[in-house]
């Protein structure tokens, strides 16, 4: 076992839980970070475990006509200085009153009136939840969102036009701790993590903030001590972003690679830094093509495949999968309909 922060004594490992809690943040939350001796890898205990007892996911507990008022805990920039644009990690306190499952979304209603329907509130904007049901403080009271600030630049002048900026993303990224926000949900079932087989293979494909649900899956698989879900399968993440500074949650994902090399794979497509085999920009579909034989074999063996991000990602990916299928002498349309029928195909694009 090659641990982050680990010393081995026989078959025991002493593991500093650096991965599990940032000491400064933990101190603020009253958490204590300590080395834990155990024969398995160190995981974080979570509460309340009755969040595991529901047979069905919660759905639309709060609706647009009666939203829940939640509180901003923190807003932090999640990308480096050379990332094009700004992406924020937003932690929201819902007091345990709006429980959700990994892969679901919350709706956010930004303040102000709907420009198309004066006198009415703004429309709901959906955001994939980027934390597990226990939240980043492991107590079931918070949820995290991964939000890219939508900024509009005038094509003629090249200058930012604040009047056309994304209303909700700017509201969230500008929020301060203690601010109140109106929330609906949770919603969505297509991206729920199927847990009936803890040894299944999950192939996760994301562009940008589409990585949000996978952060939740991976924390549940590798960071949290969930008694009724012991993951022993393979999680394979493909993440497409512009450059290294745009990588989201990279330290977290890299630590899983060190701790769980047999259960986690992580491939990055950096379009402004890497070239594909024909010398063009490296997009996530180029990475899929690179590993296509393996991916197809895994799908034939029952693997789940997930796609999350901007809807513009799908045509290129579909074309790549079609091309690969044809090279293998298979019909992509038939294969796709079989994957959908078997509930192996999960897509959430926006």
From TrEMBL:
Entry annotated with the keyword Oxidoreductase: yes
InterPro entries, per database record: FAD-bd_FR_type, Flavoprot_Pyr_Nucl_cyt_Rdtase, FNR, FNR_nucleotide-bd, FNR_plant_Cyanobacteria, OxRdtase_FAD/NAD-bd, Riboflavin_synthase-like_b-brl
GO biological process, one term: photosynthesis
A cellular component term, taken from the record's GO annotations: chloroplast thylakoid membrane protein complex
FAD-binding FR-type domain span: 65-193
Essential cofactor(s): FAD
Protein localization: Plastid, Chloroplast
Residues holding NADP(+): 128, 148, 209, 271-272, 281, 309-310, 348
Lineage: superkingdom: Eukaryota
Similarity remark: Belongs to the ferredoxin--NADP reductase type 1 family.
Protein name (Swiss-Prot/TrEMBL): Ferredoxin--NADP reductase, chloroplastic
């Amino acid at each position: 076992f090659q641990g982050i922060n680990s010393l081995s004594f026989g078959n025991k490992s002493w593991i500093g839980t650096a991965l599990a809690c940032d000491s400064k943040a933990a101190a603020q939350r009253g958490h204590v970070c300590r080395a834990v001796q155990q024969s398995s890898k160190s995981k974080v205990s979570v509460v309340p475990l009755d969040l595991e007892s529901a047979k069905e996911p919660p759905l639309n507990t709060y609706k647009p006509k009666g939203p829940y008022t939640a509180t901003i805990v923190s807003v932090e920039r999640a990308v480096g200085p050379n990332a094009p644009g700004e992406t924020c990690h937003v932690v929201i306190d819902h007091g345990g009153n709006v429980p959700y499952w990994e892969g679901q979304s919350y709706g956010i209603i930004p303040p102000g009136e709907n420009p198309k329907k004066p006198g009415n509130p703004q429309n709901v904007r959906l955001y994939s939840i980027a934390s597990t049901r226990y939240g980043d403080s492991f107590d079931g009271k918070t949820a995290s969102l991964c939000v890219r600030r939508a900024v509009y630049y005038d094509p003629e002048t090249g200058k930012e036009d604040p009047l056309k900026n994304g209303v909700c993303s700017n509201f969230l990224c500008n929020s301060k701790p203690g601010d109140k926000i109106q929330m609906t949900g949770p919603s969505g079932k297509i991206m729920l993590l199927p847990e009936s087989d803890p040894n299944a293979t999950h192939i996760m494909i994301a562009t940008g903030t589409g990585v949000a649900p996978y952060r939740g899956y991976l924390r549940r698989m590798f960071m949290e001590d969930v008694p009724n879900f012991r993951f022993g399968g393979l999680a394979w993440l493909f993440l497409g972003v512009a450059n290294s500074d745009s990588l989201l949650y990279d330290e977290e994902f890299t630590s899983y690679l060190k701790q769980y090399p047999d259960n986690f794979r992580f491939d990055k497509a950096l379009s402004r830094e890497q070239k594909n085999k024909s010398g063009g920009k490296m997009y996530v579909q180029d990475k899929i093509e690179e590993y296509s034989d393996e991916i197809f074999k895994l799908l034939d063996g029952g693997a789940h495949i997930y796609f999350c991000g901007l809807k513009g990602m799908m045509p290129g990916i579909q074309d790549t999968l079609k091309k690969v299928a044809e090279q293998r002498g298979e019909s992509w349309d038939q294969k796709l309909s079989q994957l959908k029928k078997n509930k192996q195909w999960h897509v959430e694009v926006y």
